[in-house]
Design goal:
Blueprint: H1 4-14, E1 21-23, H2 30-43, E2 45-50, H3 58-69, E3 72-77, E4 80-84
Parallel strand pairs: 1-2
Antiparallel strand pairs: 2-4, 3-4
Protein name: RNA-binding protein
Keywords: RNA-binding
Domain CRM: 1-96
Length: 96
C-alpha cells in the first residue's frame, strides 16, 4: 500500500508520461492485462487512457486493472489512469 507522500512522488514522475494503453469499447481483456503487466515490469509506472467509447466507468476500469495486474493505483484523473508496480528485475524508481 502506498502512502500519500509516495503517491505524490509517483504523480510527479507520471506527469510527463503519455498513456501507452487505451481501453476502448471492448473493455479490459486478458491480452491487455498481459501486455500491461509486461509494461509495468519494464517501466514500473504507466498511464492508461480510457476512450470515450468505453462502456465502463473509468473507476471500474481502474479497479479491474489494479486487481488483474496486482499493481497500485496512483491516480485517476479524467479518463487517465496511473498505475505503479515495483519491478522485479528493472527497479528504477526509488520511493521516498
Amino acid at each position: 500500500m502506498l502512502t500519500g507522500k509516495q503517491k505524490r512522488f509517483l504523480r510527479s514522475k507520471a506527469h510527463h508520461l503519455r498513456p501507452i494503453f487505451q481501453v476502448g469499447k471492448e473493455g479490459v481483456n486478458d491480452n491487455m492485462i498481459t501486455t500491461i503487466n509486461e509494461a509495468l515490469e519494464k517501466r514500473e509506472l504507466i498511464k492508461v487512457a480510457v476512450l470515450q467509447n468505453c462502456l465502463e466507468e473509468t473507476d471500474d476500469v481502474a479497479a479491474a486493472l489494479v486487481e488483474a495486474t496486482e499493481s497500485e493505483l496512483v491516480q485517476v484523473i479524467g479518463h487517465t489512469i496511473v498505475l505503479y508496480k515495483p519491478s522485479v528485475e528493472n527497479k528504477t524508481i526509488q520511493l521516498p
